[in-house]
Amino acid sequence: MTKILISADMEGATGVTWPADVLPGSPQWERCRPVFTSDVNAAIAGFLDGGADEVLVNEAHWTMRNLLLEKLDDRAQMLTGRHKALSMVEGVQHGDVDGVAFVGYHTGAGAEGVLAHTYLANSLTGVWLDGERASEGRLNAAVAAEYGVPVVLVTGDDRTCADARGYAPDACGVAVKDHVSRYAAVCRTPARTAADIRAAAKEAAALAVRHEPARPRPRAIEIEFDAEHLAGAATVVPGVEQTGERRVAYTSPSMYEGIRTFKAVTTVVSAAVEEQYG
């Protein structure tokens, strides 16, 4: 039995290029939801084409209530809603997932890429994991590795695929658009990207082989903000220390603890942002 977990984010979906495309409640978000669902359905179909027996889709964008369940491939199940222990990769920790796919992903804060950010749309200007600049993909891949689950597929813009080669070199990649600026891209049509994603997922199914979990080890995470007061606010989280005017750092005994602390930091920081001035 082969089980695939799809972590589905929206900024890297087909046709998405600007904030309103992914902002829950906006007309553009409503327009983009079916296309986002199409990307995910293509991945589901491809994995099943390739021999996977089960696919669980974990909603990973914003409210985590964006995909259209009524349009989802009936052969899959969807985990939707917020406040999950491992957030974007919830489900990877139960010992029954053989491979994880990052569908609709994007580059990290401070990097080139369409709608580039890390967890928060703004406020963070950089995140580093053990000294390497870290996107959500790199952070989540490190979490998955502690459970022996490889990243087998990544879809997003071309910069996202390039980023993935740094943390999941064996994964299949599909660029659904080419970066022009943070808010512009050369986009493929949904029909074309669906075909590309399905073909790549079929190939990626063979890579879904659970391996020995990576031994938990201390992980150092550094975060840079766009305002000094946010660094100060982040230090209310135990273990987080201010290391510069706009930087904080902490070390966790494992990536499981590291990502949970990161989630706590971003929650606190988002509450410290004031309208207009940040």
Order of helices and strands: EHEEEEEHEHEEHEHEEH
Care to count the β-strands? Answer: 12
Write down the Rg: 18 Å
Poorly predicted regions are none
Q: If helices are DSSP runs of H or I spanning 4 or more residues, what is the number of helices?
A: 6
Helix content: 25-40%
Describe the global form: globular
Structural class: alpha/beta
Structure description:
With 278 residues, this protein is an alpha/beta fold. The protein is 29% helix and 24% strand. It has six helices and twelve strands. Strands 3-2-1-4-7-8-9 form a seven-stranded mixed beta sheet, with helices on both faces. Helix 1 packs parallel to helix 4, helix 2 runs parallel beside helix 3 and helix 5 packs across helix 6. The radius of gyration is 18 Å and the shape is globular.
What attributes does this structure have?
globular, 278 residues, 24% strand, 5-stranded antiparallel beta sheet, single chain, 7-stranded mixed beta sheet, alpha/beta
Write the layout of secondary structure elements.
Elements: E1 3-8, H1 27-49, E2 54-59, E3 77-79, E4 99-103, E5 124-129, E6 132-133, H2 136-145, E7 151-157, H3 158-167, E8 172-181, E9 184-187, H4 190-204, E10 219-225, H5 228-234, E11 241-244, E12 247-252, H6 255-271
Parallel strand pairs: 1-2, 1-4, 2-3, 4-7, 7-8
Antiparallel strand pairs: 5-6, 5-10, 8-9, 10-12, 11-12
Helix pairs in contact: 1-4, 2-3, 5-6
What does this entry show, briefly?
The protein is an alpha/beta fold. It has 6 helices and 12 strands. The chain has helices at residues 27-49, 136-145, 158-167, 190-204, 228-234, 255-271; strands at 3-8, 54-59, 77-79, 99-103, 124-129, 132-133, 151-157, 172-181, 184-187, 219-225, 241-244, 247-252.
